[in-house]
Q: What sequence folds into this?
């Protein structure tokens, strides 16, 4: 089995394991979704090795590293919970209040970010609306010019036929 075939098998295995769509891979790699779908469906018999390496790298970065980080976080949380339970109740309450304050601050940052992003999106929408209105006005003006030209042409043809 060639290196390309092994790489193809690995890509297909990872795509299946993590239920990754061609669209997701396309968004993360810049490879066309159609090309990725052909690889998944087996329609692309010999995809380029660099394409397979790009897909593997993307999946590894996004999913395997994330999976490992989640396992580390779970282990740390379990250890923290054990340590937390050993603390006197007063210290447990202090930690809870402190964490609550941290979460409230993070939530405020997220809410501000959402508000700012919404404002930017609305501003973009306003510009798009203005551009659309300007285009519609230009179209109307051109339609009016076309009507005038047609009328002038009819008049011209009418005079020509009278001669």
A:
């Amino acid at each position: 089995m060639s290196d390309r075939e092994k790489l193809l098998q690995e890509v297909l295995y990872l795509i299946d394991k993590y239920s990754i769509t061609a669209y997701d891979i396309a968004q993360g790699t810049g490879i066309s979704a159609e090309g990725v779908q052909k690889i998944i469906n087996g329609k692309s018999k010999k995809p380029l090795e660099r394409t397979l390496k790009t897909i593997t790298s993307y999946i590894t970065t996004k999913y395997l590293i994330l999976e490992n980080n989640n396992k580390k976080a779970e282990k740390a949380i379990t250890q923290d919970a054990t340590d937390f339970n050993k603390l006197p109740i007063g210290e447990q309450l202090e930690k809870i209040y402190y964490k609550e304050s941290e979460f409230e601050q993070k939530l405020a940052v997220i809410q501000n970010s959402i508000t700012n992003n919404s404002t930017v999106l609305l501003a973009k929408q306003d510009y798009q609306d203005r551009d659309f209105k300007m285009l519609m006005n230009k179209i109307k003006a051109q339609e009016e010019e076309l009507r005038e030209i047609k009328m002038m042409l009819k008049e011209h043809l009418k005079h020509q036929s009278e001669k």
In short: The chain has a mean pLDDT of 83. The two ends are 87 Å apart (CA to CA). Residues 3-86 form a domain with the 434 Repressor (Amino-terminal Domain) fold (CATH 1.10.260).
